Amino acid sequence: MRTLLKNAREEKGIKTRELAQLLGIDQALISKFESGSRKPTKEQVAKLAQVLDLDYETLMVAWLKERILYEIGTDELALKAMILAEEQIKYNVSFVRKSISKNLQNILNEIDALKTKLNQFRQFDSFRIAQALELEYTFESNRIEGNTLTLRETDLVINEGLTISGKSMREHLEAINHVEAITYIKQLMERNFPLNERELLSVHNLILRGIIPEDAGRYRRVQVMIKGSSHMPPQPYIVAKEMEDYFIWYEENKSKMHPVILAAEMHERLVTIHPFIDGNGRTSRLIMNLILLQNGYVIANIKGDYETRMNYYKTLETAQTSNNKEDFLLFIAQVEKECLERYINIIEQ
């Protein structure tokens, strides 16, 4: 792999300093990659393939080979272990492919092509673009839950600190809290913190802070019903066990599934458990978007208009009551695709 990188860089006439700037890393790391003394991350491999016009699959296979050899070395049992690992990988790949429809796979392919394109424009990202899109996300996510602040009013509350006449204190707090929760999940992503129960409860605490303080960051202790849905969430005494299983499932599947599918699954599974007295939808969408951001995608902003909201609820209820998640996964994938397209269009302009 190190030869591939060095030859490709020299053929394109790019200096190590220039390549480091394009990747947003220290120049010394490029030299270490090329000497073999340091291995790039998976994300860095993807960026290197784009910048150096290398075939992604070829580079990734070389990277994986070196990782495997580094881990197992020359242990005499390594070959037996590799044979067993090959069988398991084949099984996992086969299982994942069977569980994804052709339509869904096509959208995932389009999403990944858009993500690759977006990575080429990352240097043009700006705080103002992110701020504007996050404002829209706060507006739409709260709108889904019945908040009546307009986009402009949401902006005035968050960025100007104004109070909107005729709007409740709760609606003001929902806007402020949601922005703080976005900031929090971005910090988790940037610091590479793992998704676990503590972080999820912290997100929920931010969502309900000052609104229902006694229940903020705590699992519900009463039975609840979901308005307009036939799905009945589990009894409160088994919520803790359901959440334990939720994170076990995440750990078992986070490296096996496409990130968009993983994010959608974590959203659906959390809102189905409905572990909180309030704020389940907002928290579920934030967890979904944390996973997307961790994997280099953009925030999937589900709109709060009537048609989109009804489609969202319908596909979600189908997943909850008939054990058929296809429509919901397609819905989330389509939202992510549209958000990627919009993000790229903004940056290109």
From TrEMBL:
- Has UniProt tagged this entry with the keyword Coiled coil? yes
The family database entries (InterPro entries) matched by this protein are listed as: Cro/C1-type_HTH, Fido, Fido-like_dom_sf, Fido_containing, Lambda_DNA-bd_dom_sf
Report the protein name in the record. Answer: DNA-binding protein
**Per the database record, which ranges form the Fido domain?**
195-334
The question of whether Translocase is a record keyword is answered with no
Which domain of life does this protein belong to? Bacteria
Limits of the HTH cro/C1-type domain: 5-59
Cross-referenced PANTHER family, in alphabetical order? FIDO DOMAIN-CONTAINING PROTEIN (PTHR13504:SF38), FIDO DOMAIN-CONTAINING PROTEIN DDB_G0283145 (PTHR13504)
Q: Which organism is this entry from? A: Flavobacterium chungnamense
User: Where would one find coiled-coil regions in this protein?
Assistant: 97-124
Task: Cite the SMART domains for this sequence.
Answer: HTH_XRE
Any idea which UniProt keywords this protein has? Coiled coil
